[in-house]
Each structure stands twice: as C-alpha cells, then as structure tokens.
Amino acid sequence: MLAAIIVAGGRSQRMSETAPTSAPPKPLLQHGGLPGQPRLVDASIAAADAAERIVVVGPPIDLPAHVARVREDPPFSGPAAAIAAGIRYLESFSPTRVLVLAADLIAPAGAVNALLAAARRHPGAQAWVGSHDGVDQPLASLLDFAAAREAFTDADVTGGSVRRALAPLETYRVEVDAADADTWEDASARRIGLPDGPATWVSARDRVAAAAASMIGEPVASAPLIGTVLAEDVVAPTDVPHYDSSAMDGFAIAGPSPWRLLAHPQAGAQGRNVHRAGGELRPGEALPILTGSLLPRGATAIVRSERCRVDSSSGSHCVVADADPAPGADIRRAGEELRRGEVLLRAGTRLGPRHAALLDACAVDRISAYPRVSVDVALTGNEVITAGVPAPGEVRDAFSRSFPALIEALGAKVGRLDRLADDPLDLSAWLERATADIVVVTGGTGHSGQDFARRAITERADHILAESVRCAPGHPTLVAARDRGDGRPQLFVGAPGNPLAAHVALHSFVSPAIAVASGREFPAAETCRAGEDIEPMTKRRVRLIPAWLNRSTDEAFVLTKTRSHMLSGYAAADALLVVGEGGAARHAPVCYLPL
Hints:
With 595 residues, this protein is of the alpha/beta class.
C-alpha cells in the first residue's frame, strides 16, 4: 500500500516579505500554468493520487474531503517533525511505502512519476530521494515505510534535519524537477500567485485569512472575560490543588487502627471557615475532617464517615472502621492536577464558561488577550420592509437580527448596523464613516447598473481579494481590503442580497476573517460522509448546500428548499455541505462547514 505525506507547515518567510497583503502562505498560492489553477498544495495532493492514504501536515486549511490533516508538535518545528507526525498518523494503515512531498512543489506530478518509476527499477533501496542540480531534495522522496518509521522516531526530530534522518537508509537518488519559488517575483515569473477573475471558494477563503492575519491587534492585559482570545499561554500561578486536603467527609487518621479521636465533629460552621483547621496527628490518632479541608500534619489516610463509627464504650472516644483504609486513601495531594508553571490554556483559545471556571479555580485574574474584532454592517434594498406582511414587490428584512447574532457568535462585536436606501451617495458616505475592522454590505454586488455597492467598495479598496467567487449560492460575493496606514488592513465583504446567499457569504468568508483576526486558527472545513448521491452541476462552482448531520453515522443529508432566496432549508440545517462540481457519491467523504 502506498501512502503520502504532504508537508505544509513552513512559514515561507522570504515569500511573505515580498508578497502582497492578500497573498496566503506559499502552499495556498494558485498555479496559473495548470488546468483549473489549483493551489500548490492541491497540485501535490493530485500528484499523489496513487496513494491510498494522504495526510497533510500543517496548520488548518481547507482540504479535499479524502485528505487527512495533522500537526507537528510543536507547530513550526521543522519538516523532520512534520514527517514524523505524518508517519504516526499513517501507522495504523500499515503502508509499505510513503511519498514525502513539499506542499509548495511547482512540478510535483513529474517528480512523483520519476520516484515511482525509480522504485520499480531499483526495488532494493529504502529511500528514493529526489535530486535537482546535484542537491538532494528530501521533500520529494519515496520511502520504505518501516525504514522511515525507524528513521523519524528519534527524539532529535524536532527542529532536526530530514537529510540527517535519512542518512542511515540505503538511498537511490532520482533526478527530479524540484524547482522552487522563494520570492513573490520568482512565483510571478512561474505563473504562481493570485490569478485575476473569479476566485475559487477555497482560494477566496485563503486570501481572506491572509488579509485577516495582518489585522490582529496588539494584545492587552485584561480580566479573563468570556469571548476573549488568549494572546499568550496561561500558566498556573500555583500548584492545583495548592494544599493537601481531604476528598471526603470523615476522619483524618494516622497509622493503623485503633485511632483515638482528638476532637468531636463540629455541628455547624456559623460563618467560620472550618476547612482551615488543619492540626497535627501522631500514629493512632484521628481528627474529624470535611471535604476540601486542610489535611492535618501526619495524616496518612481518610476514613469515610459512612465506613466508620465513634466508639465511646471504653471511656475515651475512638474511631472504629470497617477496615483500615489504604495509605493515602481519599487524600488530595497538592499539585496532583497541575503544577505551578504548567500550561492551563494555550494562546489562541477563545474563552468560554468552562475556561473561565478553570482560570478562576486556579486564581488567574489577568490574562493577555487580543482586542475583539469589530464589524460594521450596511443593509441595502429599497424593497425591504422591517415590519408587517410585505406587499407584492416588497420583502421582509431577513438580516438585521440574524447578522448581528451570527457575528457575535463568531466572536466579533457589531459596531454599526444601518439600513440604507439604494442610493450610491448614501452608501459612499456610509463607507467613509465605517471604521470597523470588517465592513459587510448586503446587496448591490452583481454587475448590473443597479449594483452600486460593487462600485463603491471597489473604489475604496487597495486590494481586490476576490471580485467574485465560484460558489453557489454566493457567486456575486466581493471581497476586498483597504490599507489604513497602520499595517492593519480593513476588510470589505460585499454579500449578495438574496438571503441564503448572504448567509453563505458570512459563513464562508466573514467567519474565517473574524477567527484569524481574533488570533484563532483558521476554521477549516470538516469532513463527513454523504448520506445520499449528490448530483453534479454543469458550472465550475462549489455548492454550499444546507444539510443535516446524522451524528451517529457521520452522514450528511441534503435538505430541500435551498435556493439562494430560500431560508427554510437553512433554518433546519446544522451544516453547509461543500460539494464540488462533480457531485458526491453516497458514502463518499464530503466537506462541510458546521452551523
């Protein structure tokens, strides 16, 4: 069995220094010289189509449904660590050989063909390593899986060299075209970059995420508020628990029975903190104790109250147990859950109630958090009414309540929400006043004479990220960015006026913009199985289809009434299926966005 590891976790620093704001990481740039202008990572995946299992190692990105993704630990710890992570994922599938490809190879198909042909001619080798102009290219290699597993299990693999890991293997070198593009100028010369015209759905999301990464604000110290995103790891300021205590109501005892009771249980606290009583025990002694109370010095175990009794027949009070407890029984030791300095929550975590509970319990009162992303929204349309039953030629407002709620749920705050008439001057004036990080305008993004929103946004933009998107619904969506002079661009999303199409635009493009600009990871599409055959479509577009998920079988079923102007299917859905132009067969893997 052949498997493949696609390494996609590099920082591409030289490329990022010269690339425009809208340029995503190098593996996500598009190859203008290939049919369909795929991203470089997609070209590497396609080149490995002979592999039964493919895993991409790197940060979250949208991937074909049949491709898995894992992350090297720690992130950005180098290609050797990435290969090791890929090998760990593939172990359970027992492959015999594994392709190792960089996600940004310019001509991966030719390299893969050459490697597979070399392995057929020279089957005795353990590694068939690509070579270009006399230099080994280990990220264009074919490896014996057992040999690779042994080579990449070394603890030095983090930050280590792939060439050093492969050195002990019996190697056959294969001449391949491993040309690379390290700068934006090199990439442009090879027709690699951001092609003009309608963007693919995945590329539009990549471009939005790239722009949003430049929008992240400076961290601020704050109380750990629900909804904020951590800018730094939070560590425990003290051991948790921070003292030895009892896990049960009963008696703290020292040594084996019998135990002389030094004090009687208190009947009530009367406002006093009886948990701090503590005390000291010598062998053969006992003290009453409550759950969470400070453990007396010398205590060796807790006898639960329901498993013992107090015997006063001899004139002294003794604790008599059904059986002596094991040493340490029902004692909570300081630091048994967490040690001082141990990481409680990682940077990029969006705080929810469960996180707040942990931070409060651990006495964390201040955190470093990213500022909350702001969103301004303009809703256009002379035909839209906000109350009552609409007359023919009128429609009810479907956005003014849902958009703010969705934006808040995604982690941002709504700055302005205004309903505007279909007047180019009104919209232009509103855009001049819009100061939020992200600006959303609904309606007017088509190409007719009435679609003035497209013109107004384009006039103010410095970068057009997507003049439209090859998706349905949502094809007229316009995404652009404006330089604000502080290094943090302002993002514009022109959403279609049809209700479902507009909501699809928010889930597809505003959602990743908010996540990344907030300091969180890119919310890549998830994977399930198609519960039924999904027909192909004639246009080269991705379909976003409201569907419901059967959680027990991990299958998705398409809902009806899901045309761009309809909302009843969307209201019943818990996912948007992401289906390519070829459709999907029943039980085939398919991507989706959770709702």
